[in-house]
Amino acid sequence: MESILVYDTTLRDGSQGEQINFSAKDKVRIAQKLDSVGIHYIEGGWPGSNPKDVQFFKAAKKVPFKHARLAAFGSTRKPKTAAEKDENLIALLRSKTPAVTIFGKTWDLHVKKVIATTLKENLAMIHDSVAYLVSQGREVIYDAEHFFDGYKNNPKYAMKTIAAAVSGGAHVIVFCDTNGGTLPFEIEKIMDQVCPKIPVRIGIHTHNDGGLAVANTLAAVRCGAVMVQGTVNGYGERCGNADLTSVIPNLQLKMARSCMTDKNLRHLTEVSRYVSEVANMTPFNGRPFVGKSAFAHKGGIHVNAIMKTPMAYEHVEPGATGNDRRVLMSDLCGKSSVDYKARELKIELGGNGFDSKRIATEIKRLEHEGYQFDAAEGSFELLLKRLTGQFKPLFELESFRVAIEKEKDLPCRAYATIKISVDGQEEITAAEGDGPVSALDNALRKALNKFFLVDLETMHLVDFKVRVIEGREGTGARVKVFIESRDQKRVWSTIGVSSDIIEASWQALEDSFQHKLSRT
After folding, report:
1. What total number of domains does the chain contain?
2. Percent of the chain at pLDDT above 70?
3. Which helix (H) or strand (E) holds 362?
4. What whole-number distance in Å separates Cα of residue 60 and Cα of residue 244?
5. Pick from 369, 306, 357, 352: nearest CA to 333
6. pTM, to two decimals
7. With 90 as the cut, is the pLDDT of residue 308 above it?
8. Residue 137 three-state SS
9. Are 251 and 257 in contact (CB under 8 A)?
10. Does the pLDDT of residue 473 top 60, yes or no?
11. Same domain, 99 and 159
12. Which residue, 374, 406, 483, 492, is most buried by CB atoms nearer than 10 A?
């Protein structure tokens, strides 16, 4: 069975998503990452539309891609313009990519009302553009824009546009569900009708406006498509594109259609998180196959089952896509969950009389008070060690004081003084910050630097969240504070709970530093 060609359009279609804006350097970095896992085609952008994409293609010429073929994207020639004189086509050739992807109008509605030309001229635009690019030695991938809507509205004309691209010499014809509203059974019905009539390779490009982009892509492959287009993490205009982090493993692990080596597939989670970081987008934990929660188990019954046989609650092995199994601790946990986490963390239970059953009871009590250990695994590890007598605090708080100063037309400044003790030796330090937690963080670092050789400069607080536990008491309500910290190797989260936001923040901050120092 023929392997599937993966065509990534994150750098072009993905960058059209809301709040996503890649620089030319960002695009180069992502392209190199995609190349490293064996993506077959990387669409770099539209060189005829903006200077940034021109800059990218200029920089990309110096990058030695080992696997991927770089593609430049553009449209067919303009009406009543010779192909060799069309500025868009000239820009595509100037990019000097081995592959060129152009889109043309399939839906007669667009021909008449959007580009305002005749149906006959549109056919000539498609044929002339493809033929000219082929004559210049390029591999031409033709994206039949709005193909499924066009076919449903006027099937004869839609097929004439495909014939024009084929007669021009297109190497691949890609059917596009541009509005993202086609259903899987419609994809299959239409492709079953048209695929036998097309003498070249067929691809599929779907959008997610109906929440079906991945399903529609898989349906198209079943009908003969051998190229799948999509973006990493499903980024794209409106509701996004088909998510390659779901398309690839579904094809490879469920449909036995090879997209990349098993070794490269195990880097898929890494690629997903890398692109999220470059895009400055928070990773979606619930993303299938690669999300942080994709193989996370919270209910005690579930955990008990996966301890016996993981396939009881996992549809694939987490490591196949480079992900990890996680057991979450909460008020839903039971003895099995505690046993699993203790083994994972290499913590022996039973100390101080706290076996897994008693620990589970204590966790449920704390969660009732507002703690949330499934989102604060750093605090949970410390809790487990404290309860079983396997943790001695590396420092202890004696006192702290925080002051906020506000002057007219100037931002607030915070000042903190802190006294800690380490093995009976006390240290008092003071620092300022952009807020009370920032000031406390800075003061604590200064104090700890007097006792520990650990390079705390590599540790950063990367997220700070406050949640009201019960809002009926207004400003006197209890709150929980989450802090996410990161160093050069790890990310960990901690939690604090109190009716005082500063105290809750301190609890989470203290746990973060205790966790860091205990792991060093």
Report:
1. 3
2. 97
3. helix 356-369
4. 22
5. 357
6. 0.77
7. no
8. coil
9. yes
10. no
11. yes
12. 483
